[in-house]
Amino acid sequence: MVSSTAETAVQPSFAQRLGQIDWRRYIIYIAFVLIFVFFAFLLGRQGFLSGNNLVNIFRQAATITVMAVAMTFVIACAEIDLSVGSVAGLSSVIAAMTIATYGLVPGILAGLAVGVVIGGINGALVSTLGIPSFLVTLGMLGIAFGLAQWITASAPQPILDETYIQIFGGGNFGPIPGLLIWMALAIVAGVLFLNRTKFGRQVLATGGNRQAAEYAGVKTKRIKFTVLLLSGMAAALAGMLYAGRLHSGRFQWGQGDEMSAIAAVILGGTSLFGGAGSVVGTLFGALLMSLINNGLILAGLDSSQQQVVRGIIIILAVALARKK
Amino acid sequence: MEAKAATDDGAVGPDRTVIEMKGIHKSFGGVPVLRDVDFEVKAGEVHALAGGNGAGKSTLMKILQGVYSKDSGEIFVDGKATTIDSFQSAKAAGIGMVFQEFSLVPTLTVAQNISLTVEPRTKLGLINDRAARDRAREILGGMGVDINPNAEVRSLSTAYWQLTEIAKALVQDARVLIMDEPSASLAKHEVETLFELIERLKARGIAIIYISHRMDEVYRIADRITILRDGRRLLTKPLDEVTPEQIVEGIVGKQVEGELVYQAREHTSDEVLLEAHDLTVGTHLQGASFTLRKGEIIGLAGLMGSGRTELAQALFGVDRIESGKLLLNGAPLTLASPKDAIDAGIVLVPEDRRAQGLVLEHSVRENLLLPILDDVKLRGFVDPRLGQKKTQALIEQFGVKVQDPGKPVNRLSGGNQQKVVIAKWLGTSPQVLILDEPTAGVDIGTKTEIVGMIRELADAGVGVIVISSEYPELLAVSDRILIMRRGAIVKNLAREDIPDEEALQLMVLGG
Questions:
Q1: How far is the CA of B108 from the CAs of B118, B147, B149, B224, B301, in angstroms?
Q2: Structural domains of chain A in order of their starting residue, each with its CATH number
Q3: Are B359 and A275 a contacting pair at CB < 8 A?
Q4: Whole-structure pTM over 0.90, yes or no?
């Protein structure tokens, strides 16, 4: 029989297996380690390796990570959400203003409601009317930003509620900064939902081939609605974390974060065309950008130079991860 | 018209061979697809090219268009040996293709499409839209077709798309036009327009290669016919020297498809499973009625556009049923989405497995589990070990040849991909299984296995509907054959009433 060759195939040796690993898939982790080691040698004496600085790298990545985890679902579903940055800004001011007038719990609920409402509108427009998410969320970016500026007359909204600040990123739980706990929660939830639930699998199938998913019984409209709703809620949470950490709500909080979140997702290996996504990759994407920022600051580059270097590294990483 | 032909074609007179292909060989991955094929077409001739699926028609034409390169053989254009190795060189040789899937830009106007890539320029080098319009008007006028050159292509009906395609080929001085199933998407009166145009093109000395399964059209329009079978040329003859029976036999041949013979099956049940009354969807499905019993296999035969696929999609909830009744186990059924159909136990193996059946970049496992994610959950989460077990069971049950189910499904052969599509439904324990062209692009060995799978399922009580253009397998697997025409079921035949494949073919053609 001709098929005997397949049956007698020998187990590949370790070296062969090593050769078979698709390095492109792990480029983000490799890049992270290489750049980390590079900074460690170069900037060791400037305090790069101090515990404080390492925690800082995580802290600076936290709010972006929260948004980027949800963005991973959106992009894996072959959609995009450009409104996350300004949703964060709007939720920060709504939460701050509501706390000032009605107290803590209504404030938290109001902040989250911003995400539910805007995410829901985004999702409904995309799934029922079939408007591309790029356009819907581009419009929403302006609307949310404008609203936040309008209702506050551009003024910062101070938050004096210590409990709020303690919960939402301003305080520590034991030795652990609250922001890191939120970040960890987002990652754990994201990993579980994307890889281990029916919803996550259906998100990937919808992004990979919407028609085939529909033919397999997936309600793809509902899936698209849900990912955009979740993205809105995550952005609102991120905005509330800004408000807690900075003791105020301001319309500028989160401005431009949509680009950082998208970059983190793509760096992490999620396909811009949908169908594949990695939440852990997204975490490292966000950490990599935070790491670069941190290192470049310690190296004495000013913010304009940082942006140039960061841009180059992002393009390089994505180019290396590209399929043949 | 005559004067025009002279300016277009200079020295080319009637009866002159424009294209001659000699001794063409072509293999894909060691499998010969064309073996020593000769083919020629003369100026002012319509030459029909016929053959079953996999006979090599499209490969031969793709070689002529420069899409594939031949392994050996020669091509002569106007008697001169010519190398055709790209689209550009085919165009330069005067070969134009009227694409089955149209190659027009829907958002541009007719004139812009016709002049695409050969736009007339002004002195400044800018595109001269007015000249393009004039040229389009002239060409369309010469074709005797009334289309507004300023209309956007997307606003026109498919018939006009095709005419625009032809005009586009003519602008590029095509002297040979390849038309692949040109009437497939046309209404009856539009076909007439097309035929009139073909007559006019003939008179201008343009050679036409006409690929069609429709016997009546071939007789009506073609001068000669070449039949390919299994990659070889079977015959080339003027049409008045062959009968339709000879052509059908030539296309079908003596099948060497060993196990593809009908096996009479015990009818497990007389219980009616699915009943359809006067199903209507748009213009493609107009009052289709049938019944399907438990454990029965129904074959659906019909030409392209007869409504077979539309019927399958209506039964699967893809297209809303506008009027008519659908009963499952005697209870009325309304389907708003494929999910409703799946929940009711009706599943579809769709026509286009790459676009509709599979998420190609995803693994075999992910594809198999997609419809049955609820079954592999443990405490609310998808459990990898359960999923692995379920995958393994399905793979073994259906003999899918796959080394690592974690690898993307697009690395499998077409036949194995199709087995994955079928296997993924069996996890859902369906009552009704609909298969739309399940063996298209599948090798004969896998074909036999798929037929075996279908029989096994029916023996287990599943009601099966098989749509296929490949008559041998339809005859091999079906207990009953329904023939569709213009969106309705016009014949309901017991298997024993169909003596052989030729009889079926003639019935489908309306004999």
A1: 15, 14, 10, 37, 38
A2: 24-321 (1.10.3470.10)
A3: yes
A4: no
